[in-house]
């Protein structure tokens, strides 16, 4: 995966002599002391990160952490006091005014927390606004805008005004307006924080659906750890203007960098963060229908397991057979197809553990985890789901479960 944006040692200090403050922060002076003694505010200090093409990169932190200051450096609304920001290998900090204008028009767009809509414009008029400023002809900008209105699920509302829409719908308009400019990079500064919880969850899922189709590079700001870990491919955690840790949600959950991050994620709802692929294990053995019952019994005995999945040549699940059913089938001179159980739950590897709980509790067989083309990638037992909920070591639970059943 290629790097779309590289942030190198970026600092942003607010005050009359910002560059003079950099050595003080480097020497360990805290931001509160700097404010008290110099009147300068440390927004961001020495932030570095690579943001990959097509990923959702979340910057997470509490109020005052520097996350919103940093995201405004990425479109140069905040000019960094120090450091470099490379987009497609060009340092935008060194851009001329004309280059910066083109960068903002063509490569980057921003979605705000409070929607930023024009009350006197219809939905269509709001979505068209950026295209209008760029001088796009009326028919073309209407065509582009209508396509993006449909993408965000507002087809049929193009003639409505913002005051006639719910908060969630207004946020969709803001998103459609940003997408209409077809930016490479989408900045989203706490876009869902003003929404009620139900609408917020809907918008999170909507964003993931849109990203699946459009594959934009999205930089998303939030103070909500559950939101960050749900939508982020990777997450940067900030505190007092500094980046404390960068990693995938699973990596941060597994190995928090320090006590601050441990406390930050302590109350996270793991069932809404971990996906099936994070708690599944790969089977030691598989059989096909042509293998027959004797092969199935041998595979189970050699691997010390009590059941095995039956798959076809494309590794698509046909069912499952237990050791007892296989042995009884041999005695009764039945075939493998006669004794396999097809009434099993199959789940996608992207499904969240929270959604697997009813299926895991309902079934005496493992859950089959499917990947691309519905190929079997792994399995999940009830113990895996519970381990994901309570934060037990997943590998330990997998090891103990492997000896029981697959």
TrEMBL record:
Keywords tagged on the record: Amino-acid transport, ATP-binding, CBS domain, Cell inner membrane, Cell membrane, Membrane, Nucleotide-binding, Transport
Pfam (any one): CBS
Cellular-component GO terms for this entry: plasma membrane
Any Gene Ontology biological process: response to osmotic stress
InterPro entries per record: AAA+_ATPase, ABC_osmolyte_uptake_ATP-bind, ABC_transporter-like_ATP-bd, ABC_transporter-like_CS, CBS_dom, CBS_dom_sf, Gly-betaine_transp_ATP-bd, P-loop_NTPase
SMART domains, sorted: AAA, CBS
Superkingdom assignment: Bacteria
Quaternary structure note: The complex is probably composed of two ATP-binding proteins, two transmembrane proteins and a solute-binding protein.
Protein name as it appears in the record: Quaternary amine transport ATP-binding protein
Organism listed in the record: Pontibacillus chungwhensis BH030062
């Amino acid at each position: 995966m290629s790097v779309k944006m590289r942030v190198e040692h970026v600092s942003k200090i607010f005050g009359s002599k910002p560059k003079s403050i950099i050595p003080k922060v480097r020497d360990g002076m805290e931001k509160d002391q700097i404010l008290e003694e110099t009147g300068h505010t440390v927004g961001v200090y020495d932030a570095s990160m690579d943001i990959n093409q097509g990923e959702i990169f979340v910057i997470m932190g509490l109020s005052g952490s520097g996350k919103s200051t940093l995201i405004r450096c990425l479109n140069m609304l905040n000019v960094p006091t120090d450091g470099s920001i490379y987009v497609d290998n060009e340092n935008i900090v060194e851009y001329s005014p004309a280059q910066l204008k083109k960068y903002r028009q063509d490569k980057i767009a921003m979605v705000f927390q409070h929607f930023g809509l024009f009350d006197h414009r219809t939905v269509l008029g709001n979505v068209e606004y950026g295209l209008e400023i760029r001088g796009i002809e009326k028919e073309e900008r209407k065509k582009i805008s209508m396509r993006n209105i449909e993408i965000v699920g507002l087809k049929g509302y193009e003639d409505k005004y913002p005051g006639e829409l719910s908060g969630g719908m207004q946020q969709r308009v803001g998103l459609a307006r940003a997408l209409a400019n077809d930016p490479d990079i989408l900045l989203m500064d706490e876009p869902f924080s003003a929404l009620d919880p139900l609408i917020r969850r809907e918008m999170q899922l909507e964003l993931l659906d849109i990203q699946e189709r459009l594959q934009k590079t999205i930089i998303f700001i939030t103070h909500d750890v559950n939101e960050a870990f749900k939508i982020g491919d990777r997450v940067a955690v900030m505190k007092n203007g500094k980046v404390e840790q960068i990693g995938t949600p699973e990596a941060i959950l597994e190995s928090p960098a320090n006590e601050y991050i441990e406390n930050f994620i302590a109350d996270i709802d793991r069932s809404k963060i971990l996906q099936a692929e994070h708690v599944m294990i790969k089977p030691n053995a598989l059989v096909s229908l042509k293998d027959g019952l004797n092969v199935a019994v041998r595979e189970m005995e050699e691997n010390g397991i009590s059941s095995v999945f039956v798959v076809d040549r494309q590794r698509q699940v046909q069912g499952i057979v237990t050791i007892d059913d296989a042995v009884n089938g041999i005695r009764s001179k039945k075939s493998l197809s006669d004794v396999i159980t097809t009434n099993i739950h199959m789940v996608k590897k992207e499904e969240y553990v929270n959604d697997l709980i009813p299926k895991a509790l309902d079934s005496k067989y493992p859950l089959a985890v499917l990947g691309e083309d519905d190929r079997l990638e792994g399995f999940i037992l009830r113990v895996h789901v519970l381990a994901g909920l309570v934060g037990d070591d997943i590998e330990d639970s997998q090891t103990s479960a492997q000896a029981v059943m697959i």
